[in-house]
């Protein structure tokens, strides 16, 4: 929405679109960080793969996977459209908004994904 307004009225709304993109980027980075911590904690007892935790979302209902992936696609399309319309202005920051959707997918996969358990002899021990 902010990108569409920024494209229609670049003098007025472009700065708002830039702020929205930067906030989404920051929130996405925080989500990725939280997902990483959750995946590391779970990897002590389960066989967590990076691809599964951050992309495939094992155990997620099909409708949830579809909704989150469509949301990321729309975020990327809006960001790329804004950047294509005004490549050297504030709308170029819209591409950063995609990080939020990817971070949410990673967070869901790391926190709620279904992974195989580690065998007792292979479990990692915490040192220190």
Which key features would you list for this structure?
128 residues; mainly alpha
Q: Mean pLDDT, rounded to whole units?
A: 85
Tally of alpha and pi helices: 5
Q: Helical amount among residues, as a percent range?
A: 55-70%
Question: How many structural domains in the coordinates?
Answer: 1
For the biggest sheet, the summary is: none
The helix/strand class is mainly alpha
Poorly predicted runs? none
Question: Can you offer a commentary on this structure?
Answer:
This protein has 5 helices and no strands. It has one domain (15-112). The N and C termini lie far apart (49 Å). The longest helix is centred in the N-terminal third of the chain and has 33 residues, at 10-42. Helix 3 (50-56) packs across helix 5. The chain is mainly α. The relative contact order is 0.23.
Gist?
The protein is mainly alpha-helical and 128 residues long. Helix content is 67%, strand content 0%.
How are the secondary structure elements laid out?
Elements: H1 2-8, H2 10-42, H3 50-56, H4 62-85, H5 98-112
């Amino acid at each position: 929405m902010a990108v569409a307004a920024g494209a229609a009225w670049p003098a007025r709304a472009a700065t708002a679109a830039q702020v929205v993109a930067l906030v989404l980027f920051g929130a996405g980075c925080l989500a990725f960080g939280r997902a990483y911590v959750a995946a590391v904690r779970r990897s002590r007892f389960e066989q967590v793969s990076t691809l599964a935790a951050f992309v495939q979302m094992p155990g997620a209902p099909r409708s949830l996977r579809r909704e989150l992936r469509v949301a990321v696609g729309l975020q990327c399309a809006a960001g790329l459209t804004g950047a294509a319309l005004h490549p050297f202005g504030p709308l170029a920051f819209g591409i950063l908004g995609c990080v939020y959707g990817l971070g949410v997918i990673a967070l869901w996969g790391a926190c709620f994904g279904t992974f195989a358990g580690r065998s007792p002899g292979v479990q990692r021990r915490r040192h220190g």
